[in-house]
Amino acid sequence: MPTILVLGGTTEASALAAMLAARGDDAVLSYAGRVASPKVQPIPVRVGGFGGVDGLTSYLREHGVTHLVDATHPFAARMSANAVTAAARAGVAHIALTRPPWAPVAGDRWTRVADIEAAVAALAGPARRVMLALGRMHVDAFGAQPQHEYLLRFVDAPDHPPGLPRHHLVVDRGPFDVDGDRRLMAAHGIEAVVCKNAGGTGAQAKLGAARALGLSVIMIDRPVLPDRLEVQAAEDVLRWIDHGADRGV
Ligand code: 3Y8
Ligand code: NAP
Fold first, then answer.
1. Atom in ligand 1 nearest the alpha carbon of residue 13
2. Does residue 102 line the site of ligand 2, with CB under 6 A?
């Protein structure tokens, strides 16, 4: 009987958790503990860091984990790197459940940048009304471009006001929808949107909204992740658990 640890925090992780629950698998979903009330899951959940690679390696060994599924967000680069290293050390089968990056379509006005710093640099110039659809963790970096009127969207209300002189904060969690994002952007007269190339469907609405409104989008490319076995459908993870773990799907 496999013992599965899913590193979660994405729409795909939740979809996999539902399938594992339906099959009665011995599985636990793990959250970092970034938000006050993470989504309720149909399998047991653990919350909080493991304590680096060593902590995760010990966790895998102590809990007899046989299959590690990294279903974290594409920007959770440190967690994904730790997962590959710890699984190898503990001799645990490892797979990543991810989603393809978004690609621009007709009508999109994207400027692709390499990382958060490059997104900040791309905002040099006269004051504009900019939506930072990046969550909470990287907002302070945009203090280097204080001239803009920012629209921020966080999952939780922050315990101290964001360090941007002119900003409006919306507290809301995805998945979002195009009409809602379009209304939000229009109501705030947004001229440009900054976002991460998360891929998937949970954060995609803002791209459709920006396209409909003819807004420019500063799209942050994903960080480089280690080589690993990757699939893009939860069903492929189940096949891997049932048949492929020893020889990689
Ligand atoms: C804690 C746990 C599910 C998962 C849903 C997905 C979709 C909705 C859209 C915008 C973009 C953003 C942000 C976003 C989305 C999904 C997914 C996704 C983007 C939750 C969740 C956790 C987090 C962490 C949180 C980050 C933040 C990022 C907000 C749960 C709700 C901006 C990423 O306050 C903080 O510290 C928040 C931190 C990492 C990025 C940041 O820098 O602030 N996600 N998001 C996970 C943990 O503790 O381990 O589900 O309740 C999950 C989801 N958020 O099961 O349906 O699959 O991507 N999450 C981005 O894409 O740029 C919002 O506003 O348009
Ligand atoms: P990160 O920078 O790659 O990870 C930093 C540290 O957070 C990790 O080393 C680990 O701590 C802990 N951690 C991260 N994910 C964890 C998990 N699922 N379970 C237990 N510990 C975890 O990660 P992040 O970008 O902060 O993302 C944190 C969580 O939010 C992840 O679950 C991710 O899927 C979710 N999320 C992130 C984004 C995003 O934009 N980054 C978007 C949507 C959802 P230790 O070293 O102590 O083990």
1. 55
2. no
> Which ligand ends up closest to the CA of 154?
1
| pLDDT (0 to 100) of residue 202 | 86
- The range of the structural domain enclosing residue 95 comes to 3-99+224-247
Q: Is residue 196 part of a domain?
A: yes
CA distance 190 to 172: 18
Question: Do 42 and 75 have their domain in common?
Answer: yes
pLDDT at 247: 56
CA–CA dist 209, 218 (Å, integer): 14
Determine whether the shortest distance from the Cβ of 9 to ligand 2 is under 6 A. Answer: yes
Report the predicted TM-score, pTM, of the whole model to 2 decimal places: 0.96
Nearest to 68 by CA among 145, 4, 146, 139: 4
Judgement on whether residues 127 and 205 belong to the same structural domain of the protein: yes
Give me the residues paired with residue 206 across strands: none
191 and 243 co-located in one domain:
no
Residues 146 and 204 in one domain: yes
Same domain? 55 vs 32: yes
Q: What is the CATH number of the domain that holds 167?
A: 3.40.50
pLDDT means per 10 residues, the chain with 249 residues, are 96 97 98 95 98 98 98 98 98 97 96 98 98 95 98 95 96 94 98 97 94 98 96 97 70
* Three-state DSSP class for residue 69: strand
**Residue 37: DSSP 8-state:** S
